[in-house]
Write a structure and sequence with these properties.
The complex is a heterodimer of chains A (334) and B (133). Chain A is an alpha/beta fold and 334 residues long. In chain A, 46% of the residues lie in helices and 13% in strands. About 4% of the residues of chain A have low confidence. Classes of the chains: A alpha/beta (334), B alpha/beta (133).
Chain lengths: 334, 133
């Protein structure tokens, strides 16, 4: 049996080993991923992001538990990809998200994989998209992707996920934080976790006011640089109800508010299907993947046909301040 | 660009609630450039084997201070091998009486580390085990 066939047949060790291959970017991993691609596109991808210590891991664990309650016998039901940061100095990492997920141990319908960010700065690892594709092909219905503890601009998750949950906690900042661009903009669902703490009313008010200001465009946002893709794709039907991100309160450690959160995730999925946004987001994401791979490939091909000494020669002119980096690139390409 | 890193699972099987040693080792391995999956306290052998499978680790480090190592360690080894992970190196650290060490090594443990072991030795042993696997 090939690696791809074993993964499709539900072999967990084969799946785990393929994830390593994809993470390491090996040739065999790439080839297997290519052959599995036609089996992707079925899973609901849910991203969970927020600052360090807001309770993302605990919340992810609780969401998975709640989903598993509905159909405990189902195999390959929930996959979790949890990303933690790599050291910028030695490349090592402590991946500690499983500590909060011990309640899921022993459930054969759940598969948890920890990933180090390996130098990527958008809140995910470069290989996270590939890892998610493998889990999608392997037949998991729900894939929860937990980002690195994110600050203000780690928004890669919104490109990858169908539903993005942004987790806040009471006391994380005033109303100016709430109107800044970045992470709050990407939320499909806003969760105030640790909602038993003082100040929860202020946080909720700041988030709601921001949402009221933010919805002249009707909950429909696309990435700016992917604009041409969204114009080519079928436009979402404009009479569909607008999705305004709901603000939910949870106390994940006590399982409070989790049933409502899971219900809201389901409603968002239904909204995406009905409005046509699911297909649109899928196309945007694939378009982005395509562009990234195209750039990388063109660069590699170009490097192969270019004399390294010429490159060094021109670079030394930049070091001597005789050419700007921009002029150097122009001269090299000609 | 292909990039491979040594993935290590650090786990505490059994009921003792003291994980300072496990955290010191986890940190030392991190500083040596490894990716360390830390699972926390009070893990059953089944939980450890399942985590090792899902994470496709190269090495498992078990920290035990409770005295239950002769029951827990062979169980972890059997489960991990039963899952088909024949090349995963298993290392044990903690309070292990010297007379128990030969039997643990005979059951397939790569090395047993007592208090005061330099972390550099653990790093070297894991690198050597990974290179040989």
């Amino acid at each position: 049996m090939t690696a791809a066939e074993s993964v499709l047949a539900g072999d967990r060790l084969a799946l785990s080993r393929l994830l390593t291959q994809v993470e390491n970017g090996t040739e065999s991993g790439k080839a297997t991923l290519d052959s599995l691609f036609k089996h992707t596109g079925h899973a609901h991808l849910v991203g969970v992001t927020g600052a360090p210590g807001t309770g993302k891991s605990c919340l992810v664990s609780q969401i998975a538990l709640e989903v598993r309650k509905a159909d405990p016998a189902l195999q390959r039901s929930v996959a979790i990809v949890a990303v933690d940061p790599s050291s910028p100095f030695n490349g090592g990492a402590i991946l500690g998200d499983r500590v909060r997920m011990r309640d899921l141990a022993g459930d054969p319908g759940v598969f948890i994989r920890s990933m180090a960010s390996r130098g990527a700065l958008g809140g995910l690892a470069n290989a996270t998209a590939g890892v998610v594709q493998v889990l999608d092909a392997a037949g998991f219905d729900l894939i929860l992707v937990e980002t690195v503890g994110a600050g203000q601009s780690e928004v890669d998750i919104a490109r990858l996920a169908h539903t993005t949950i942004v987790v806040e906690t009471p006391g994380m900042g005033d109303d100016i934080q709430a109107i800044k661009a970045g992470i709050l903009e990407i939320a499909d669902i806003l969760v105030i976790n640790k909602a038993d703490r003082p100040g929860v009313e202020n946080t909720e008010r700041a988030l709601r006011v921001n949402l009221e200001l933010g919805y002249p465009n009707g909950g429909f946002h696309t990435f700016i640089e992917a604009g041409h893709a969204s114009q080519d794709a079928a436009s979402p039907s404009l009479d569909a109800d607008v999705w305004v991100p709901p603000v939910l309160k949870t106390v994940a450690i006590e399982s409070k508010g989790i049933a409502e959160l899971v219900q809201t995730i389901r409603e968002h999925r239904e909204y995406l299907v009905k409005s046509g946004l699911l297909a649109l987001r899928d196309r945007e994401r694939l378009n982005h993947d395509f562009e990234v791979l195209l750039q990388e490939r063109l660069k590699q091909d170009w490097l192969k046909t270019t004399d390294p000494s010429k490159r060094d020669e021109i670079l030394s002119l930049v070091f001597d301040r005789k050419l700007s980096p921009g002029q150097a690139v122009e001269r090299l390409i000609k | 660009m292909p990039e491979q890193r040594i993935r290590v699972l650090i786990a505490k099987p059994g009921l003792d609630g003291h994980d300072r040693g496990a955290k010191v080792i986890a940190r030392a391995l991190r500083d040596a450039g490894m990716e360390v999956i830390y699972t926390g306290l009070r893990q059953t052998p089944e939980m450890i084997a399942e985590a090792a499978l899902q994470e496709d680790v190269n090495v498992i480090g078990l920290s035990i201070l409770s005295g239950a190592h002769m029951a827990l360690v062979p169980r972890v080894i059997d489960l991990v091998r039963g899952n088909g992970q024949s090349n995963v190196g298993i290392f044990v650290g903690g309070i292990i009486p010297e007379e128990d060490v030969p039997e643990l090594l005979a059951k397939g443990v790569k090395a047993v580390y007592g208090p005061g072991t330099p972390t550099s030795r653990v790093v070297e042993d894991i690198r050597a085990d990974f290179a040989a696997a």
